[in-house]
Design goal:
Elements: H1 2-24, H2 31-53, H3 64-84, H4 88-96, H5 102-155, H6 162-181, H7 186-198, H8 204-215, H9 217-230, H10 238-262, H11 267-277, H12 284-292, H13 296-320
Length: 326
C-alpha cells in the first residue's frame, strides 16, 4: 500500500508544484487563471464526469458509504455550530470543516489510487455532495441573517411581516438548490447516469473525444491548484486557519471511520469515502465566506493551508485505509 500511496501522491505534488512555480514566476496569473478555471470546470470536468457515469447502472452503485459520508459531515458540522454558536461565522466554519475538494484533488487522487471503480464511488458522492451540503448551509446562513436582521429591527422598534421573511427565505433556498443542480459538476453526472440506463453505447468518435478531454482534467486541475496557491496571501492567517485544517483533514475522516464501522461498512467504496473525507477544504467555502462577508481571510488561508497539509494527511489516511475491513 505504501508504494500505491507514493505512486498516487507524488504526481499530485509535482503537478501542484508546477502550477505554483508558473504562478510565482508570473507565467500565468490574473485573467488567465479565470480562463483556465473555466476550461477545467466547464469543459474538461463535464466530459470526464459524463463519460465515467455513462456506463454505470444504478443498481451497481453502493449508496451506503455515501450515506455514511453525509452523516459524518452532518455530525462534524453540528459540533462546530454548537461550539461556535448560531451565527454566520459558525456556519462558514462548519462548512470549512466538512466540505472536501472532491473534484480538483479528489478525482486525481482516487483515480490514481483506486482506478475507475473508485471514481464511480466518488462521483456517486459528488452527485449529491454539493447539492445537500451547500443547500443546507445556505438555509442555515439565511436563518442566521434573518435572525440578525430581526434583532436589529427589534432594537429600533421595527419588524418585517412574517410572510415577507418566509418568502425571502424560500426564494433564497430555491435559488441555492437550483444552482447546486444546474452546475457543471452534478449535472453531467446525472446526465451520464440517465444515459447509462438507456443501455445505448456512446458513438465511438464521441467516446474518444470525451476520453481525450477527460484525461486532461486531472493534470490541468492540479496545475490550477498550484497557480491558485501562488496567488493566495495565506501565510499571515496560518494560526487562525490551523483549527479548520485539523477538523477537515483529520477529524472529518475519523468521524466517518467511526460511523462507517458502526454501520458495518467495508470494501473499496468505504475506503474511497474515507480517503475523500481526508481531502483538503473545497474552494466553495471561500465563496460562501465572501457572499456572507464573514471570515474571508481565515477561510482563504484555510483552503490553502489545508491543501498543503493535505498532502501529508492524505498519505497518512491512505496508509491506514488497508486496516479497514474488506
Amino acid at each position: 500500500m505504501s508504494n500505491l500511496v507514493f505512486q498516487a501522491l507524488v504526481p499530485v505534488v509535482l503537478l501542484i508544484f508546477t502550477g505554483y512555480l508558473a504562478g510565482r514566476l508570473g507565467w500565468v496569473g490574473g485573467k488567465s487563471t479565470g480562463d483556465i478555471s473555466n476550461i477545467v470546470f466547464l469543459v474538461l470536468a463535464p466530459a470526464l464526469l459524463f463519460r465515467t457515469m455513462s456506463n454505470v447502472h444504478l443498481e451497481s452503485i453502493d449508496f451506503q458509504p455515501v450515506i455514511a459520508y453525509m452523516s459524518a459531515m452532518g455530525v462534524v458540522f453540528v459540533l462546530v455550530m454548537l461550539k461556535q454558536g448560531f451565527n454566520r461565522r459558525a456556519a462558514v466554519m462548519g462548512l470549512a470543516s466538512t466540505f472536501s475538494n472532491t473534484l480538483m484533488i479528489g478525482v486525481p487522487i482516487v483515480g490514481l489510487a483506486f482506478g475507475d471503480a473508485g471514481l464511480v464511488t466518488l462521483f456517486s458522492l459528488v452527485s449529491v455532495h454539493s447539492f445537500i451540503m451547500l443547500t443546507l448551509v445556505t438555509v442555515v446562513l439565511e436563518f442566521v441573517v434573518v435572525a440578525e436582521e430581526n434583532r436589529a429591527r427589534a432594537a429600533h422598534g421595527e419588524s418585517a411581516p412574517l410572510a415577507v421573511r418566509a418568502r425571502r427565505m424560500a426564494l433564497t433556498v430555491c435559488k441555492a438548490a437550483k444552482g447546486a443542480i444546474l452546475h457543471p459538476v452534478p449535472l453531467p453526472i446525472i446526465c451520464g447516469l440517465l444515459f447509462a440506463q438507456t443501455g445505448l453505447p456512446l458513438p465511438g468518435v464521441v467516446d474518444k473525444a470525451l476520453q481525450l478531454l477527460g484525461s486532461a482534467f486531472a493534470p490541468m486541475a492540479l496545475v490550477l491548484v498550484g497557480i491558485t496557491l501562488a496567488s493566495n496571501a495565506w501565510a499571515k492567517q496560518i494560526r487562525s486557519a490551523l483549527t479548520l485544517v485539523i477538523m477537515k483533514n483529520l477529524v472529518h475522516p475519523l468521524a466517518l471511520v467511526v460511523i462507517g464501522l458502526a454501520a458495518g461498512l467495508s470494501g473499496l467504496p468505504f475506503k474511497v469515502m474515507v480517503v475523500t473525507a481526508s481531502l483538503p477544504i473545497g474552494a466553495n467555502v471561500y465563496l460562501f465566506a465572501l457572499r456572507y462577508r464573514v471570515a474571508e481571510s481565515e477561510t482563504s488561508a484555510a483552503v490553502a493551508l489545508s491543501t498543503i497539509v493535505g498532502l501529508a494527511s492524505m498519505a497518512l489516511v491512505m496508509l491506514s485505509v488497508p486496516l479497514l475491513p474488506g
